[in-house]
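Moderator note: this is an archived Q&A kept for reference. The question asked for a predicted structure of one protein chain; the sequence and the answer are reproduced below.
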Amino acid sequence: MIVFLLIFIFLYGGLNFYAFSRAKNVFNCSRKVQVIVIILLVLMILAPVIIRLVESRHLETLARSMAYIGYLWMSFIFLFFFLDIALNLLRHICKFFFKSAGSVLIRNIVFGLSVLFTFVSVMYGFFDAQRVRVKKLEVHTEQSLPNNGKIRIVQISDVHIGLIIREKRLQTILDCVKDANPDILVSTGDLLDGELNNVMPQARQFDQIKPKYGKYAITGNHEYYAGIEKSLEFTRNAGFEILRDETRQVAGINITGIDDVTGKKWGPKRDNPRLVNILPALQNNKFILLLKHQPFVNDSENFNLQLSGHTHGGQIFPFMFITRLFFSKNYGYYELGKNKSLYVTRGAGTWGPPVRIFAPPEITIIDLIGEEIN
């Protein structure tokens, strides 16, 4: 984690000082103003660490205010970097046709356009991140099902309940779930984020969701980062049954939950070994729903539908191109073979910047349609 933090600070710091050097070339600021700006930039670069420290001291209001400022700035800097590079590349191409494209005036105009487009994009992404969409899927199976042969499963993922996703924004997500009227609710990891002592009361908000056949959850990587024991306590208090390499037979189907791979490094050693052969062992001819946080597909696992999250669909354009380098199945529905498929959701919340650009938040409704039980 320390290595990751150092790499992040180095890269993020580089982006900030790229923006500083661009602004310095446009504005003729005094040495004193430049020093003040550099101090503010250093604070912004260290904001994620400072926010966690303030939050751990239970200074909730201060931490939340800092989170909005720090993470909105982070999204601004990321987007500015990509936009400014793209516009300057276009300017250099234009220099072959128009000599004036290399002038100071045009360079300053490009800087101004980069700032303007970035600001508009961040504002759009901030409000769009609060508009939860509903994605609907129909999955057909030859197996017999109760409930007149139709089971409605609603998937939430990557909610990241914490400083920013709290009472009101969490309620927006839960309202979408209630409107979907699920028979089964599943959470495919990263339900939580941050200092958990501050968010434990939010577990009660899930009391309003009472699916006919229950609520089931698995761990994501952030459950371990936030503290696995507290995360499990919150999830149980929210009414979920947690599946950690376990299977439950519910509503005529098998629901199998796989513990996130982060647990191998971050979690305490468990009494029972990891049940790597749990899926091939299922031979009861029932539909197998696999819950796995990260969208890795194991060809040796026997399942009909795998539900995953983790990628956020990139969350902020153009990061979806980066997440695809690590996860070839970044977002959407994938046919893997006969009676075998995967759905990767963009998730309902945000991590880091409370912004989504071309990757809107969603909950997923999966209508599982099979034969009626006579």
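Archived answer notes: Residues 271-276 have pLDDT under 50 and may be disordered.
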